[in-house]
Structure formats: C-alpha cells, structure tokens
Request: fold
Amino acid sequence: MSPQPLKVGLVGGGKGAFIAQPHQRAIHFDGTRRVTAAALLPDPKEAIEEAESWHYPIKGYPSYVEMIDEQASLPPEERLDYIVVVTPNHVHYDPAIRAVKAGIPVMCEKPLCMELKEAATLVREVRKRQVPFALAHTYLGHWTTRLSRYIVTKGLLGDIRWVDSHYIQGWLASRLEATGQMQASWRTNPKLAGGSGCGGDIGTHALMQLRYVTGQDVTDVSAHLETFVEGRALDDHFTAYAQLSGGGRALIRASQICIGHKNDLGITIAGSKGTLSWKQEDPEKLTIHLPDQPDRVYWRGAFSAGDGFLPKDKKLDALLGEPTIPAGHGEAFHDAYARLHRNFEADVRKYNAKRKFSCDGSEYASVEDGWTGMAFLDACLKSSAKKGAWTRMPKCP
Ligand SMILES: NC(=O)c1ccc[n+]([C@@H]2O[C@H](COP(=O)([O-])OP(=O)(O)OC[C@H]3O[C@@H](n4cnc5c(N)ncnc54)[C@H](O)[C@@H]3O)[C@@H](O)[C@H]2O)c1
Reply:
C-alpha cells in the first residue's frame, strides 16, 4: 500500500501573504505531502474565517499556540507530521520552539529568529529532542546549486581564493513602507524584522549560498550596514568583506535600493584552477571557466559525467539520475522549494518510523545554519558600528 501523505500545518499565510503560497504549492508538488491545518493570521476570528475560505479544505486554528497544543495531544499517527513557519521574523522563535518541545518537526523561514540567544536555545532543544528541523533557504534546492556544491567541495576548482555572493533587489528604493505595503512594513521595522533589515532579509541568503556551495565557514567579517532611503530605521544596503575558513576571501553583499534589480541572487567562485558562476534568475544554467578553454555551460540534466571536467562518480550519478522533468522544461523557484520539502519529508518519515535521520545541512539548511546566520548578522552589526572593524564570528554552541 502506498504511504499516506504527510500532514503539514502552516503558521501564517493569510490575507495577501507572500511566501506561504510558494510553500503550499511546493508541499503539494509530489502528492506525498499536503496542508491539512493552519493558523493563518494573528487575529483568532480572522484566522478561522480565512481557513474556512481557503482554496482546499484545511482545519483552521485561532492561533498557532492552540494548533501546536492540540496537535501535541493527539496520537502520533493523527498528529501533524511537520509545521511550516511562514510568519514575519518576530514570529519564528515562539512557534518553532513550541513545536520542537512538542516533538513536532519544523520547517522555519529564514532568518531563524530575532536574536542569537534564541537561536542558541533552538539549537539546544533540537539536538536534545532529536526533532527534524529545516531552515527554508530556498536556493539550496536548485539542482544547479547541488551541482555547484559537488564541483567546489570535490576540489574541481582547486583552492578557493575569492567568492562574490550577492543578492540585489530594487523594490525598497523608495519608502514603500510609508504606503502601508505589508511586506515592506514589517521588513523595515526593527521590532518585527530584527537588528538588520536588508542583511537579515537577503544577506542571509547570500551567506547561506556561499557556505553551502563552498562547504566553508566565514571566520571574520568587516561590514558596513547602510541606509540610503531617508526615514528608514534599518539598513537597505549591506556589504560584508569576509575571511573564509579555507584561507580565501569573500564579498557577501545585498541591496534593496538598486532600481531594476529583482531577485538578483548570484555567486561567483574563483579557485586556483577555475571559476564558477551561477545566477538564480537563470537557475538552470551553471558556467565553468577554465584557463585557455572555451566556457563550459552545464544545463540541468543535459549532460553526462566523464567529460574531462566532471569525473565519473557515484555521487554525481545520483544527482544526474534524480527523477525530475527532462532538461529544457525549466525548473525554477517552486521546484527548488519542492526539492527542500521532498528532502525534509524523507527525514520526517524516518523520524516517524523511529529511524536515524540526518538533518546535516547537505540537502537543506539546518538549525545550526540558522544559528550561523544570526551570528553573522550579530558580527556584521558590531563591525559596522566600529566603521567596518574586523570582527570574529563566534563558534556554534
Ligand atoms: N526563503 C525565501 O526565499 C523567502 C522569501 C520571502 C520571505 N521569506 C521569509 O518568510 C517569512 C514571511 O515573509 P512574507 O514576505 O511571506 O511575509 P508576509 O507579510 O507576506 O506574510 C506573513 C504572514 O504571517 C501572518 N502572521 C503574522 N503574525 C502571525 C501570527 N502571530 N500568527 C499567525 N500568522 C501570523 C500574516 O498575517 C501573514 O499572513 C519571513 O521570515 C521572510 O524572511 C523567505
């Protein structure tokens, strides 16, 4: 008999919410997971009304506290298999810690929370209770991101000398928050977004992309957090120069004030043997530059290994053999999210069956990666306050 679809609960997602929609599509992508419950809005009455008019049947809860409490009291086979936290940053920690303590797996949006102290508590509780936990850094789910990680960590580019990881947008080039626009309003409010606006919102994606693809950590930062739009309380332009654990250097930069740029996330990795470049707005394509050779452009799924650059290797066979749509039928943002949910589902099923699971950051970002994102923001804020003084990153507890 085929397995029952996993039951997923949403925390947030009502009335014009953004990221809850890609998540719920990605959850339903494979038919093996479905959204069955939600606490969609902060107002209890509105949360129930919104759930009643949701586009497929779900059980609505007046609050995430009631959802998690009730679910925790159910027998394991009736309980939600995991929750997805898609609320603004100030409502990440509380639902996440409640679910972890109740033994319910969590996929949480980035950044992990508001403060490093909260992040440390989450790391401790996740480890203590051995509950699957994922941080939703979407771009790790691109097939080409996985191939990039293989290429760099296998040493095919040689020693990593320099990385430029960036996320450039233009949607906050004027005071959009003054119009009451929902996503801009909370993202520019330190009480709801945290100590860094642009850095927390998209700089953390640039950091995670760098760490995932290179397998290296940032050890020291020299950062400038700047605000170009008058009257804004948080940075809208973020630049961190960084020392990497492997000896190289990196620029991790993000901006929300570059008119015309949409979701311009990209990475360039320069090694002693070659350079890799990738852009999420053209995510099916990965370019490798080797000395004195024409550029090699790898399209998802449209090549075989053993071509003089990519070796014949079982690890690569597994990636190349992944059942997904044939090359040329484009994958993009939703497919990347679906890949994260698919990988997380595998760990949740093992957890349900009381088998060993990994959550080791190789397929989706872990709670430790979430802690590192918070530590990075903390170090960058301290450095920026001292005009870019080099500041050491703490070690994950
Ligand atoms: N991974 C990515 O690519 C990506 C992209 C966008 C946003 N995000 C992250 O996702 C989160 C949400 O961002 P968004 O742009 O979708 O925000 P949004 O403002 O569009 O949606 C937030 C939703 O949470 C609801 N909410 C707020 N407080 C609540 C509470 N106490 N209980 C229940 N619901 C509550 C709001 O009513 C709204 O429905 C943020 O942390 C953001 O950083 C991640």
User: Anything to note?
Assistant: The mean pLDDT is 97.
